[in-house]
Design brief:
The complex is a heterodimer of chains A (121) and B (183).
Chain A: H1 7-15, H2 25-47, H3 50-56, H4 62-79, H5 116-120
Chain B: H1 3-11, H2 15-36, H3 41-57, H4 68-90, H5 94-104, H6 112-124, H7 128-139, H8 144-151, H9 155-172, H10 175-182
Helix pairs in contact in B: 1-2, 2-3, 2-4, 4-8, 5-6, 6-10, 7-9, 8-9
The chains are: A mainly alpha (121), B mainly alpha (183).
Chain lengths: 121, 183
């Protein structure tokens, strides 16, 4: 005689089972308190820069970070190239200027738009 | 609101979301621990608390691409497994003592609640793995695939465990007896 417990019987048996006790309300109180403490910590963490540093020095997005550093390095190398007049300090001291300051522009040389005339003079 | 969304809110520090999630799962998990850990109310409460403390501490461990119920029951399963190991080390045999006491009791029981209780005492006598598979399948309604993922074993193993669990149960509690409990 087949005496195996059927699937249907088992399902009914387990679903109808009442254990006669329920979770203690003290558990919920303790968990809510624990969550409150965690949430407090979470806000401090949110305001700190620790998260950014963690991301920066983590192994995530390594190709992206490497590309960014390479570009930054290239730009900095380009910028340190010497250019003419880069290190000359503009002089504001008028005692160093030998040319008299002429208010009357009559004595000034003529302003020639044609630069070919400069060669003649 | 789906469990996944609640978990997202929890990771952002939303207490109302946590309370909602706790309300949804407290009874299911309490029942699971109660049946898995020998029917001790205090132990079940402790394990329920520890499960949710894990969620509070590290909500980021939850992968939203998986169902939350599966994830939380896999936590519960691992906690029970650790507890069994501890009990093995301490050689606590409370379960066997209780089962023997009920099995030896030859007095006729007529009250339905007593019959159900006796039936579960017999189920407590099953192997832990068999009991767990029965609970997840028939109480929690998880599919074979889901149970396999929760217990981290193959689907074939789950089918085999279910088959042997039913055989084991039939041996200790015949169908007629189970029918008596259900009626």
């Amino acid at each position: 005689m087949r005496n195996n417990v059927s699937e249907k019987d088992l399902a009914t048996f387990f679903r109808n089972d009442k254990i006669g006790s329920s979770p203690s309300p003290a558990v919920e109180t303790r968990l809510n308190y624990a969550f409150l403490l965690k949430r407090k910590g979470f806000k401090i963490y949110q305001n700190s820069i620790l998260g950014s540093f963690t991301w920066l020095f983590s192994l995530k997005y390594i190709p992206l970070k490497a590309a960014f550093v390479s570009i930054a390095l290239l730009v900095s190398l380009y910028n340190i190239q010497q250019k003419a007049g880069q290190y000359e300090t503009p002089v504001l001291d008028s005692t160093m200027i030998n040319m008299p300051f002429n208010i009357d522009t009559f004595y000034n040389p003529a302003f020639n738009t044609d630069t070919c005339l400069f060669l003649e003079s | 609101m789906p469990d996944k969304v609640l978990m997202k809110h929890i990771s952002q520090g939303n207490q109302a979301a946590f309370t909602e999630l706790y309300t949804r799962y407290k009874d299911r998990l309490f029942y699971f621990f109660f049946r898995m850990l020998g029917g001790c109310e205090d132990t079940s409460n402790d394990f329920l608390q520890d499960t949710f403390l894990k969620i509070i501490d590290k909500p980021e461990l939850y992968n939203p691409s998986y169902p939350f119920s599966k994830w939380i029951f896999s936590i519960a399963h691992n906690m029970c497994k650790n507890e069994y190991r501890k009990r093995e080390v301490r050689k606590i045999m409370v379960k066997e003592e209780n089962t023997d006491k009920y099995l030896d009791n030859q007095e006729p029981i007529t009250d339905t609640s007593q019959l159900v209780d006796m039936a579960f005492r017999k189920i407590d006598g099953l192997k832990d793995k068999s009991k767990e598979v029965l609970l997840l399948k028939y109480r929690e309604n998880f599919s074979i695939q889901e149970i396999a993922e929760i217990l981290e074993v193959s689907e074939g193993t789950i089918k085999s465990r279910l088959h042997y669990a039913r055989l084991e149960l039939s041996a200790i509690m015949p169908r007629t007896e189970l029918k008596g409990v259900l009626s």
